[in-house]
Every structure is written in C-alpha cells, then in structure tokens.
C-alpha cells in the first residue's frame, strides 16, 4: 500500500510540476537527489512566477505609473532618467539552498572564474545588489570606526600575512573595488609611509 501511495504521489508531482518531496513531505533522499528534484521542480515555480509578473505585476505597475505621471504636481528629480521609469525590476522568491556550504562554495568559484558576478549571487539570495552594496559600505565604515575585526574585511588580515607594503596596499585597495598597479601602490607607500590612510568604501575621494 505504501509503495502504491508513493507512486501516486510521484505521478501527482510530475503532473503538477511540483516535487514528490514537497507533496509527501518526505525529505529522506541524498543531497544530490534532493537538489536535482528541487532544480526540476523550481522550473515550474519559475514559470508561474514570470507569468504572474508579466500578466499582473508589470501591467499594474505601468498603469499606476502612467496615472501618476499624468496627475503629478511635482517635478521628477533631476537625476532620474525618464526612459527608465517603466523599466522596473521584479524580484520574486528565489530557489532555496539545500546545503548552504556547497552552494556558497560553488558561487564563490563561479565569481572567481568570471562565469558569474556579485549581482547575480545577490539576486540568487533574494537581495537587491545595490542595497547590498550600500549596506556593506555602511558596515565596513562602522566596523573600522569601532575597531571591530571581521574576516569580511581583507584589510585586517594584512598584518598577519607578512606581505610587503606594496602588496599590502594593492590588496587593501582591491578589497574596496580598485585595482592598483605595483608602481601606483609603491608611490602611495613612498608618499605616506605608515601614515597611509586605510581606504574605505568611499575610496575614490580618499585617493584623489
């Protein structure tokens, strides 16, 4: 009887583009099997999500925006490009991680190899990349101001690594998104010595 029931549940999952584990609430498979099932099932969820966005979210947003633009009394901010007003980004639920360690390592390898970018990773976790950057900037500034040391800021690891000053400066600036040549880093070391300010998220202003 149990085998018959499980077979019926599998057929229900296949016919509705759901998954057997979700229908039966039985999560006793291996990591690879569970992830394969999740990937296949998520294709159906993703299709429904995009249909909801295409046929409800986007039309409703654009109709509302059109009415607002016709009825508004205030001018739009000067730094807003009018051509982008209708190009909203719709961020729906994302596929959950079965094994966070495996998933995080895979994303890290893809980013390092150039097959993915930071924005893609942020969206895969349901985050807005721009908001994430702003949050990180605020966090780094607050941590350095308070003398807090975390592995997320590469600057704090330089003292322990024993690398030469030129390499240290290059690595610190790379950690905030600016790549320096060896000559540029050496010039900063020669000019400031031990008084070289630590570049924060607003490094373009500090390096000018």
What's the order of the H and E elements?
HHHHHHHHHH
Number of helices: 10
Largest beta-sheet characterization: none
Structural class of the helix and strand makeup?
mainly alpha
> What is the typical, i.e. mean, pLDDT?
80
Which range does the strand content fall in?
Answer: under 5%
Helical content, roughly?
A: 55-70%
**Principal-axes shape call:** flat
Number of strands: 0
Distance between the termini: 75 Å
Radius of gyration: 25 Å
Which stretches are poorly predicted, pLDDT < 50 over at least 5 residues?
203-208
What does this structure look like?
This protein has 208 residues and is an all-alpha fold. It has 10 helices and no strands. The longest helix is centred in the N-terminal third of the chain and has 41 residues. The C terminus is likely disordered.
Provide a compact summary of the structure:
The chain has 208 residues and is mainly alpha-helical. 62% of the residues lie in helices and 0% in strands. It is built from ten helices and no strands.
Write the layout of secondary structure elements.
Blueprint: H1 2-15, H2 20-24, H3 31-71, H4 100-113, H5 118-124, H6 129-146, H7 158-161, H8 165-175, H9 182-192, H10 203-207
Main traits of this protein?
208 residues; mainly alpha; 62% helix; 0% strand
């Amino acid at each position: 009887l149990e085998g018959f029931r499980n077979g019926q549940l599998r057929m229900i999952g296949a016919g509705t583009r759901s998954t057997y584990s979700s229908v039966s609430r039985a999560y006793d498979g291996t990591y690879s099997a569970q992830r394969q099932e999740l990937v296949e099932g998520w294709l159906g969820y993703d299709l429904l999500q995009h249909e909801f966005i295409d046929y409800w979210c986007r039309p409703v947003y654009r109709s509302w925006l059109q009415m607002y633009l016709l009825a508004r009394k205030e001018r739009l901010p000067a730094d807003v490009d009018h051509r982008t007003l209708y190009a909203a980004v719709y961020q729906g639920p994302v596929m959950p991680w079965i094994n966070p360690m495996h998933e995080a390592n895979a994303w890290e390898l893809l980013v390092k190899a150039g097959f993915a970018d930071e924005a893609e990773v942020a969206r895969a976790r349901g985050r807005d990349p721009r908001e994430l950057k702003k949050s990180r900037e605020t966090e780094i500034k607050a941590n350095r101001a308070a003398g807090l040391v975390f592995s997320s800021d590469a600057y704090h690891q330089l003292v322990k690594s024993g690398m030469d000053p030129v390499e240290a400066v290059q690595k610190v600036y790379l950690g905030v998104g600016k790549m320096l040549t060896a000559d540029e880093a050496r010039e900063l070391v020669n000019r400031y010595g031990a008084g070289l300010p630590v570049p924060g998220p607003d490094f373009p202003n500090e390096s000018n």
